Amino acid sequence: MWYTMEYKVMFEVRVEAAFSAAHFLTDYNGKCEHLHGHNYKVYAHAQGRELDGGGMLLDFGVLKKALRDVCNEMDHTNLNDMDVFRGNPSAERIAVHIYSRLVEKIPFLAGPAVRLSAVDVFETDTSRARYIPD
Questions:
Q1: Residue 27: is its pLDDT beyond 80?
Q2: pLDDT tens per residue, range 67-115
Q3: Any bridge partners for residue 77, and if so which?
Q4: What's the CA gap between 79 and 94, in Å, rounded?
Q5: Distances 35 to 2, 32, 77, 81, 88 between C-alpha atoms, Å
């Protein structure tokens, strides 16, 4: 084998998708309390210690399709209209929502062999929220 488990090798894959949406923050004093929009960029990270017979942790295409499907549910919407955000769609809450939807779509991402290890939601190129499950 070209690697040894004694080093506790961890593999990670990451896929990316994007969506555009409007929102406003109801519990915030400042310009973000007004309706505005973002071109969100989303990264989904999966980790595991074992590769399959084809030498992959996870097929990029499977994770990418699921992430695009979830992002498409929010694309060109007012996120405040979605019940899941209860009127306050912060980047942190969007990241948790995306995580939950991905695990619903791909149940084996809840582990133990492969787990969805983080979801990043960028509102801008320099501002990101990350959700990391316990």
A1: yes
A2: 999 999 999 999 999 999 987 999 999 999 999 999 999 999 888 889 9
A3: 21
A4: 9
A5: 53, 7, 12, 12, 12
Q: How far apart are CA 18 and CA 42, in angstroms?
A: 6
Q: What are phi and psi of 97, to 5 degrees?
A: -60, -45
For tokens 């309706």, name the residue: 35
- Give the DSSP H or E segment for 91: helix 91-105
Beta-sheet pairing, 114-124 with 127-131: antiparallel
Read out DSSP for 34-84? S-EEEEEEEEEEEEES---TTS-SS-HHHHHHHHHHHHHHHTTEEGGGSGG
31-43 residue pLDDT tens: 999 999 999 999 9
Separation of alpha carbons 123 and 44, rounded Å: 15
DSSP 8-state code for residue 113: S
Give the count of beta carbons closer than 10 Å to the beta carbon of residue 110. Answer: 13
Structure confidence at residue 9 as a pLDDT band (50, 70, 90): low
